[in-house]
Amino acid sequence: MGEMEVDRADGRTASQLRPLACSRNTLHRAHGSARWSQGDTIVLAAVYGPKAGTKKGENPEKASIEVIWKPKTGHIGKLEKEYEMVLKRTLQSICLLTIHPNTTTSIIVQVLGDDGALLPCAINASCAALVDAGIPLKHLAVSICCGLTESGSVILDPTKAEEQKIQAFAYLVFPNSPLSVLSKGSSAEDDEPIEHGTITSVTHGVMPVLDYFNCLERGRAASAKISEFLRRSLESQTK
Amino acid sequence: MSNQTIKLGAGLRQDCDTISVMKAGTLRLSKPNKYWVESSHKRYVPCVEDTVLGIVVDSKPDNFLVDIKAPTLAFLPVLAFEGGTRRNIPKFEVGTLLYVRVVKANNSMNPELSCMDDTGKAAEFGPLKDGYVFETSTGLSRMLLSSPTCPVLEALGKSLSYELAVGLNGRVWVNAASPSTVILVSNAIINSEFLSGVQQKIMVEKLMKRLQ
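Structure tokens for the assembled complex are given below, as produced in the milestone run.
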């Protein structure tokens, strides 16, 4: 399917992301914190831990992760519980859980502004907050929202108005590509490189399978840009 | 780099054939073969032979339970004191501040502490009385303990007399004759985290001028 010109309300092209901003160590009492904004969607994540002890149902041989989602207004309902579950599963796959067994790390996500792509913004904020707290991670996670318009073209990072108009959208989380130094004598990688995997995918609405794979490809390409931004932001704030 | 034995310190791990990093920070090398990632956080990961400041949380028949800002509570055996026997077990109340040394630290067990040095002498370890405790990041504690003496401590020492104990776990204890001196020293230390040596000296001079 060719690249068709899509008219977006704020004048962006189909593959253009909103301006990203990330600041770490914003909260004084939290052990790690980060504030991530994509346009007008702003999320503040705070990490406390690791603290001793696990909850009843959790495996004591691994660290457990607890997520609390706080919406901007209103009561906590099913949607918030769903976000908590998705965030918990995503973060469990990037953390090294066997390093500190029998501990609990709590992540509290506070929504400060919601203008579309809320869950990806929260995942990016939580990942930056985990790095700020020094929780051991396998790799970072970058998250992006891809929307599918009626004409079949993919738009990235839709605003709330765009999300309500389009036919379907997907929140995708990819691992960020590691920078590695390989010795000269090493053989070529037999397995697929890590950046071809997908950590999480949450879809809303109905979309054909081919269009879903199209979304995945576009999302993965764009996640390289977010990954680059995250790496630069972490480097600049490390002494 | 092949055929070389290297030691991996904090923040690095071996994943089958590759060495990957777990935390964000600066990669450091200590010749001949030790690599580690240096980073500054508000929590502490216990390492053997570190000196830390702990706060007693509970006491059991065999151990004191001490909080050292680590993922789990640390145990201080009741006999780990100079000349310690079952008859003269010290009585520490909940909330006592102790200057201790980490003896055992691995991730699956609670860390173990001791109030003696290698030879069995007390050597400054033990409870700290009076004074004021505040929390800092681990990076600032390392800077305060670096040699040559950290510029802010040297500048403060030129005009004030104070007593200082720094724990590598991000806790600092300050004691001086008057409360205003204690407050001044604590504020100077907290403000010096992101300043260079020259900036630290200037900051201390300004604080001293305001005191006069």
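Chain B is about 20% helix and 30% strand. The interface with chain A takes residues 1-2, 11, 13, 18, 20, 22-26, 39-43, 45, 71-73, 107-108, 139, 194 of chain B (CB under 8 Å). Further analysis is deferred to the final report.
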